[in-house]
Amino acid sequence: MPTNTFKDLIVWQKAKSLAVEIYRVTNDFPKNETYGLSSQTQRAAVSISSNIAESHHRRNKKDKDRFISIAYGSGPELESQIEIAKELYPMLKYKKVENLLVETMKILNKFPN
Questions:
Q1: How many domains does the chain have?
Q2: CA-to-CA distance for 93 and 57, rounded, in angstroms?
Q3: CATH number of the CATH domain containing 57
Q4: Listed residue (56, 40, 83) closest to 101, CA to CA
Q5: pTM surpassing 0.90?
Q6: Which residues does 103 contact at the CB level (< 8 Å), separation at least 6?
Q7: With contact defined as beta carbons under 8 Å apart, do 40 and 81 qualify?
Q8: What is the radius of gyration, based on Cα positions, of the chain?
Q9: pLDDT in tens, the chain (113 residues)
Q10: Which domain range does residue 80 map to?
């Protein structure tokens, strides 16, 4: 069944859920993190879903692949930031974001080119 919009893609849906959950978690970071780890983490999460969406509407394979590659590259960046946050703010709940990140990266790794 062909997808008409990026919103139909399971990988985008997972990435969007990941970004929303990252915002929920980082909302509980201390206010002094607003322009630090919180902002960086949010941007990395949003980058994944945004680049998947951008890829979907590109016409040639090279452009599509480039945006999927950027989305995929934001995954380890986000994972690193989550690891730092876990050490700084261990009282917060990270399991849902970690699971969503793993799911998203597995799908992206096998994403059709």
A1: 1
A2: 35
A3: 1.20.1440.60
A4: 83
A5: yes
A6: 14
A7: yes
A8: 14
A9: 455 899 999 999 999 999 999 999 999 999 999 899 999 999 999 999 999 999 998 989 999 999 999 999 999 999 999 999 999 999 999 999 999 999 999 999 987 65
A10: 6-109
